Structure formats: structure tokens, C-alpha cells
Automatic annotation (TrEMBL):
InterPro entries: DUF4199 (IPR025250)
Superkingdom, natural source: Bacteria
Organism of derivation: Aequorivita viscosa
UniProt name for this protein: DUF4199 domain-containing protein
Keywords for the protein's UniProt record, in alphabetical order: Membrane, Transmembrane, Transmembrane helix
Transmembrane segments: 7-26, 32-50, 70-89, 109-137
Amino acid sequence: MLKIYSTYGIGIAIVLIAYFLILKLIGLHHYPVLSVVNALFFGAGIYFALKSYQSKVSEVKYEKGFEAGLFTGGIASIIFTVFMALYMYQIDGVFATSIMESWNMETQMGTAMIVVSVFIMGLVTTLILTFSLMQLFKKSWNAKNRNRNTL
């Protein structure tokens, strides 16, 4: 299972970093609304991680599938947050200030707030998408025989 978490988690993080750098090249990285696309990358990565897990076991238990989704997204969130922290503290110190100004917030902790926000958004996206995607992979409780619970 650790191989699935790490493989897909690192894959999601690489795609997120590449997407951010492409936005930087185009000059659109100052628009936080474009981070909505990150949910698509998280969703695809978690889906493929669950699909990979499903191919290795005969039946996906909800707890184990949920664990696979959470750890996959958690690894991606940690890696992407570390990248964003390095980017904002070492490469482009003005980036965090410009984002905070666009939010009409004046605080001395601008960069730290954005780093924490990136991490929390990654975890929340992971949680919601894992809940949603597990509906596709869990075992159905619906009766095979339609007349089973009738008089």
C-alpha cells in the first residue's frame, strides 16, 4: 500500500508543481481562483490510486480504500506545500505579498498564512474527493434479490 500512496502522491505533486510553474510562465499565478484546477489533479490522482489498489485486492474494504485516498492526497499536499514554501520564501518573496493584497489583508504573516492555507486546502480537497470517489469503489449494500426484504 505504501508504494501506491507514494507513487500517486508524488505524481499528483509533480503535476501540481508543473501546473503552477506553467501559470507562472504565462503570468497567471497571481490569480488564486485558478487553483480550482488543482482539484481535478487531486481527483484524477486519487482515482487512479484507488483503481490501482482495487486491482491488487479482490474486494475493496471501505476503510482501506479511504486510507489509500487520504494518504495519497496527504503526500501530495505535503510535497506541494513544501514546494510553495520554498518558492515563496526563496524564489519570489513578492508573490505572497501580492496575493495578500488581492485578498485585502494586511498582515506581517502573509507568507506563513498562505503556506498554511495551501496545506489546509490540499487536505480538505483530499478528504472531500476521497469521500466522493469511495462511493464508486465501495461494496454496495443493495440486495441482489429485490424481493428479499418484502412481505
